[in-house]
Specification:
The structure is a single chain. This protein has 216 residues and is an alpha+beta fold. Helices cover 52% and strands 7% of the residues. The protein has helices spanning 3-25, 43-50, 52-55, 58-67, 72-86, 89-98, 110-129, 137-144, 149-154, 183-190, and strands spanning 162-166, 172-174, 177-181, 200-201. It has a 4-stranded mixed beta sheet with strand order 2-1-3-4. Strand 1 (162-166) and strand 2 (172-174) form a beta hairpin. It is globular, with a radius of gyration of 17 Å.
């Protein structure tokens, strides 16, 4: 990756974390217990998970993974629930702000995946709450460009028979019946989420609509 590209993504990550921290600081108390697009997690669990990599060293993470019998999903779920109970809303928001330039990256995908982690989990919160936050297009584009069939399968996305077509960016993915939406909404589908009604257009849109969240 070119140095200029890396610096651009690093700056985008810092901005995304600061903006999400400010958004979390402004949420009413009740919203912290509202469901998100991340199945089984409220806003507080998603916020806790987003800062896990900043707060847990590699040795501690490995210990938690052993406790979860090698399951990354069980480990992250257990840690998110424990941390959501242990820290106040103010602290959870501060973890993002104070670590805006933290160099953490996921095990696979490098710095672009770190941006994706922040963007997608931020959308898990804002889309479910019906907040009209539009992630800057340059950030969405970086994450969309990293979408692959293998990655979509890893996140449980069931995209067989559809072609995702962004109507605000020059981006498409897959093949089949066209499914239209904003780039950030299609990004959620590629990461295994469903979105509230009204976010998608196309014959197959109903496949990707969820109930039980506030939505737009």
């Amino acid at each position: 990756m070119e140095i200029t590209t890396r610096r651009r993504i690093t700056s985008a990550i810092a901005a995304e974390r600061r903006e999400l921290a400010a958004l979390l600081d402004g949420l009413p108390a009740a919203s912290w217990d509202a469901p998100t697009l991340c199945a089984g997690w409220r806003v507080r669990e998603v916020a806790a998970h987003m800062s896990l990599g900043f707060r847990h060293s590699l040795p501690r993470t490995l210990v938690e993974l052993v406790k979860a019998r090698g399951s990354l999903h069980r480990m992250t779920d257990r840690c998110a629930r424990a941390d959501a109970a242990a820290f106040s809303e103010r602290r959870l928001a501060a973890f993002l702000r104070d670590n805006a330039h933290h160099p953490w990256t996921p095990p696979v995908g490098g710095i672009a995946a770190a941006l994706g982690h922040d963007v997608v989990h931020g959308l898990d919160i804002t889309v479910a709450l019906g907040l009209d936050r539009r992630v800057p297009a340059d950030r969405v584009r970086v994450v969309l460009d990293g979408v692959t069939p293998r990655g979509a399968r890893f996140f449980g996305a069931e995209l067989d028979g559809v072609e995702l077509r962004a109507d605000d960016l020059d981006w498409s993915f897959g093949s089949g019946t066209p499914l239209y939406g904003a780039g950030q909404d299609l990004l959620l589908l590629a990461f295994g989420r469903k979105v509230p009604p009204g976010h998608l257009r196309g014959e197959q849109a109903a496949r990707f609509v969820t109930a039980g969240v506030r939505g737009a």
